[in-house]
């Protein structure tokens, strides 16, 4: 049988691309997402669970199902996340800040918390956390998101230290701007806040990247597949950007 893979936030975007890529390699996949309609559009042979990755009861239920149906887990992609507000720090509401951290950071924590005992018993496993270029460089007007994505890197490095002796690897992927509805929404909100056009904001983002292009969800999924493979058997505790090389995280056009 193929590897057993969990992807949180797997109903669309990066998560769905990861699930599709692992499934194409013969893996059994379980995807979770808050969007039940998105999950309904996923292939029928995937296991699916609707719920909030930052809810301990939901995540406990996910891992109970994994144990019952698969008897273990080989790869956990802690990918669930939300964009959070687009605003200067003084204009961010505390509840919006907390919600952004809950989904992006607590969701990754819970995935690792429940995966660790299973993987320790197996003496094997891979945990991949989706961070962001914003977790390396910062991101003006996106303080909650940037704070969360920096925090998951600290979580990942600690997991690598705690779990490495048990044959478990942990890494983080740091995508740049990923083509799709989420970044389009961010660009539109930033353009509104700055009194300019989305095209100008998009051009500014692209100008700050050496390769002058946004990445795709598939680019990120390809990196996840590599990091989960035996080809990366001694890669652990690392942050791997998939961003075309960011020269300037806050370019001005």
UniProtKB/TrEMBL annotation:
Region forming the signal peptide: none
What GO terms are given for molecular function?
oxidoreductase activity, acting on the CH-OH group of donors, NAD or NADP as acceptor
Q: Which InterPro entries would you find in this protein's record? A: NAD(P)-bd_dom_sf, Sc_DH/Rdtase_CS, SDR_fam
Task: Kindly give the CDD domains that the UniProt entry links to this protein.
Answer: SDR_c
What are the protein's UniProt keywords? Oxidoreductase
- Show the Pfam families listed in the entry: adh_short_C2
Task: Return the similarity comment.
Answer: Belongs to the short-chain dehydrogenases/reductases (SDR) family.
Protein name as annotated: NAD(P)-dependent dehydrogenase (Short-subunit alcohol dehydrogenase family)
Species the sequence originates in:
Hoeflea halophila
């Amino acid at each position: 049988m193929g590897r057993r893979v969990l992807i949180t936030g797997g109903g669309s975007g990066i998560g769905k691309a990861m699930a599709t890529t692992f499934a194409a390699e013969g893996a059994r996949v379980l995807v979770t997402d808050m969007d039940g309609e998105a999950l309904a559009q996923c292939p029928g042979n995937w296991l699916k669970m609707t719920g909030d990755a930052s809810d301990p009861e939901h995540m406990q239920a996910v891992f109970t199902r994994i144990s019952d149906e698969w008897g273990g887990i080989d790869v956990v992609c802690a990918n669930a996340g939300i964009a959070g507000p687009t605003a200067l720090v003084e204009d961010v509401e505390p509840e919006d800040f907390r919600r952004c951290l809950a989904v992006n950071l607590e969701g990754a924590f819970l995935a690792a918390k429940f995966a660790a005992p299973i993987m320790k018993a197996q003496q094997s496993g891979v945990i991949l956390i989706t961070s962001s270029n914003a977790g390396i460089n910062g991101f003006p007007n996106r303080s909650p998101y940037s704070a969360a994505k920096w925090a998951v890197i600290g979580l990942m490095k600690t997991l690598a230290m705690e779990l490495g002796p048990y044959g478990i690897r942990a890494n983080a992927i740091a995508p740049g701007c990923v083509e799709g509805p989420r970044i389009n929404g961010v660009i539109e909100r930033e353009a509104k806040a700055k009194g300019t056009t989305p095209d100008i904001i998009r051009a500014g983002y692209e100008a700050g990247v050496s390769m002058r292009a946004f990445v795709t969800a598939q680019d990120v999924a390809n990196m996840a597949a590599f990091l989960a493979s035996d080809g990366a058997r001694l890669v652990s505790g690392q942050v791997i950007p998939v961003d075309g090389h960011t020269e300037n995280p806050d370019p001005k056009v």
